[in-house]
Amino acid sequence: MLLQSFPEIIDVKKFFSRQARLRAPLPLQLLKRLEQYLNKAEGGNSSAIDVDLDFSQDEESRFILVGKMKGRVLLSCQRCLQAVEYSLSSDFKVHVINELKISGDRELAEDELEVVLSLEGKLDLLALVEDELILSLPLVIYHDEADCNQALIDLQASSRREIGSKAFAELAVLKNQLKSSKSKMK
Considering only Cβ atoms within 10 Å of each terminal Cβ, which end of the chain, N or C, has fewer? Predict the structure, then answer.
């Protein structure tokens, strides 16, 4: 079974027993939590993320979801706050468990895969995909220094030099004060 539109919530048994495959563009406007990380530059973000999901069962009849996602998005440079184009991609493999059938922590601890819980046989596929995309974002993103706002870089460099020279001057003053207070105590 090959699907080409993105369902937000799925019936776990149906998708995994039919070994469904989902290949569909996921519109960015559906990803409200991811949206807060994106730069809002006009026309900069692609309209969708390409999603490829395989629903299968392994030899132990466990539900295994394998996913690959990719797309181009604009993030904000943390130096100049201007848009930086970023190739967002995520590959993941998770074990989907029905919350009512969990047989204790031992099963979860022995499993090498990440575990996702379904609620009453339903899985919020949109939330899972959005979580994986958010986790694949870089912690820090910058332009190359040559592409960044040059006036801001020059300002930061001059303030670093000024702070560096002042910091050591203040330490010298403190050191002299400490010496003079020690000599007064003797």
Answer: C
Assigned token pair, 26: 């996921």
Q: For the chain, give the DSSP string.
A: -EE-S--SEEEHHHHHHTT-EEEEEEEGGG-HHHHTTB---TTTS-SEEEEEEEEEE-TT--EEEEEEEEEEEEEE-TTT--EEEEEEEEEEEEEEEEGGG---HHHHHH--SEEEEEBTTEEEHHHHHHHHHHHTS-SS----TTTS-HHHHHHHHHHHHHHHHHHHHHHHHHHHHHHHHHHHH-
**Residue 103 pLDDT more than 80?**
no
Number of Cβ atoms within 10 Å of the Cβ of 62 = 15
pTM of the complete model:
0.71
* Residues β-bridged to residue 49: 26
